[in-house]
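Entry:
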Amino acid sequence: MDQPLPAIGRTTFIIHTIIAVAVGLPLLVAPLWFGALFGWASQPELQPVLRAFGAMFLGLGGLTSFLAMRASTWAQADIIVRGEMAYLALQGLVFALAALTGVGPAFGNWVFFACSAVLFVLFAATFSARPRTAQPG
């Protein structure tokens, strides 16, 4: 029997889609301007990499969450929730370590760490609320 997506899942996917577009689109279109808002130095040679990250946020973050918010069953969204939890945990770790070791601007690192942490908590809450199948016995 198909089990429904928990209500928090839809909310999580909506929030994630909004954040992915809010970060991904500026990275894709104006990476140096967007980076400067968070304290990163302007390095024109990094534009292709930053634009690629913007495309990744839009495609792997925004689009997958947009599609998952339209899911009617947990099975349709399960792999996205698990993948996002893994990705956000690693991303949060990268930003926290960078901030703690003084690599890059502290402000930008902590802002993106906080964003990663909040999204991780939302996806973890979604995973926690997933429907469980009855165990035999």
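Helices lie at 7-29, 31-37, 47-69, 74-101, 106-128.
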